[in-house]
Amino acid sequence: MTVERVITEHMDLWTGAVTQKSGSGRGSRSKRELTGIKKLRELILELAVRGKLVRQDLNEEPASQLLKRIADLKVERQRVAGSRKSKSLPEVSPEEVPFELPHNWAHARLGSLVDIVRGITFPASEKSKSPEDGRIACLRTSNVQEQIEWDDLLYIREKFISRKDQFVQPNDIVMSMANSRELVGKVAIIQANPIGSVTFGGFLGVIRPIEVVPAFLMALLRAPQVREELIGSASQTTNIANISIGKLNPLVVGVPPLAEQHRIVEKVDELIALCDQLEQQTGDQIEAHERLVDTLLDTLTRAANAIELAENWARVQQHFDTLFTTEHSIERLKQTILQLAVMGRLVPQDPTEQTADDFLLMVQEERGRLISSGEIRRQKQSAKDSYELASKTLPQGWAEAVIGDLISLISGQHLKGDEYFDQKLGDAIPYLTGPAEFGDVSPLPSRFTNERRAIASAGDILITCKGSGVGKLNLANCEIAISRQLMAARPILVNPAFLQMLLLDLEDAIREKIVGIAIPGISREDVMDAPILVPPFAEQGRIVEMYESLQSMCEQLKQELKAEREVKVQLAHAVVERSVH
């Protein structure tokens, strides 16, 4: 089967296999990887370097003759340069052959086809961002992307360059020799040098082809089988993986005749351009779908009255199966449900129920009782003016308030090293230092303490107030000591689940109050003064019940979608495997 047929017959897999990666912040679009198209690119490269992409012509000079000519050229280069003859590489043994090649191809070691030059080293103090006299531009790993990126270069003094071969040349392939395990071995070609003399740093290497088509060599070094072998051979130190010249030189590769290399490059360029087009079209379709979902869901929260809301919901419901087909669309639906809940539009109001004003008076009385009994501390009177209250229609029986009207807020306290321990001893309670120990549902503590200076109780809502996770919430499931990276909102008569919904809805507004760069944070007032709408107590329970039911439905949709996507990714992988072998 030709690669064109593989592409066209499985188009739904290439465009439909999408992997989602969570974005940061509620409401942000998730980062997505078009996994199917990525697999298709890998397939094209793998077929190319196995001799399965274009026809062979038995009348062409075989690769064995090309290899002899390259060997002679290497010897002549060394003679002209006056350098010592390089150590000969061993013949490729049958056990090392990774796959069978076409008749007129040949296996060879990479070092027999190229010269490999490692980058220069220099003290960190010598780095400069300015192209001053006496300094040379120096490539580093961040410049090695799909193509060489010529901005953000370093400049170093020319005295650190000891040999002519340490300057890049046209058709050089620059490889990241020391990087993270995901990025080590990344390559890009020097197609044009826009700035004159350029060298390259010690974390890079240059692979300089000898009468091998540079673009074919690029395809070979980017092919999955070669990438896996290089990464597998890389040594690991802490977070950095290293590929040595000693590992590159003996790498076994398949070499086609020179004329076929040109045909392969032409076909690869054609098919990769098709992948680019598919990627653009698929990305555009996904973005258009997301905009449509956003627009229709916005009509629900902006509806002027119950009649308009019902009409808008009927429109969404009519196209439900085609709208909610991505993780983004389902997350947006979940957020819309939350917004409708705290706006009083998720369940009907009952005019016979006690009003929110009456409920708030009861909360005020209960707060006084708790203060008198010493169960909570008296808190500063809220200024109630640090936020601009968005104009919202007040449902019947509801009231305007701030979060501080419904809670007692406990600030965390820092414990010294001798005040906590790594295992539970006696009556010790968990000690949480931050959201890293929140878990998916309830806290998963790794430390314990006997100190009881800042304690959250079961049912309290934990709020991250300092560090990278500011605004992140969790529910305390037992008595917990909290560090100063956390606060605990203790509900006073308010339904705890409804309070958590209010805080979830306020997350973006509270995060806008963040100050500080090194250690971002929010204050007690940022939480206490956040404006809310409060429903009657009985309605709180009905809202929570409906909200949790709808959220459960959304989670089920997400699980079904995830399972469907995983099947598509597995099928795309299976098609690639079947096409290669």
Low-confidence stretches: 23-29
Helix fraction?
25-40%
Structural class designation: alpha+beta
pLDDT averaged residue by residue: 88
The largest β sheet comes out as: 5 strands, mixed
Q: Report how far apart the termini are.
A: 12 Å
Helix segment count? 16
Beta strand %: 15-25%
Count every beta strand, where a strand is a DSSP E run of 2 or more residues. Answer: 25
Query: Could you state the oligomeric state of the chains shown?
Result: single chain
Strand order of the largest sheet: 17-19-18-23-20
The Rg value, from CA coordinates, equals 32 Å
3D shape: elongated
Structural account:
By secondary structure, this protein is of the alpha+beta class. It contains 16 helices and 25 strands. The chain has a five-stranded mixed beta sheet with strand order 17-19-18-23-20, with no helix packed on it. The protein has a four-stranded antiparallel beta sheet with strand order 4-11-7-9, covered by helices on one side. Strand 12 (235-237) and strand 13 form a beta hairpin. Helix 3 runs parallel beside helix 16 (537-580) and helix 11 packs across helix 13 (496-505). The chain starts with a helix and ends with a helix.
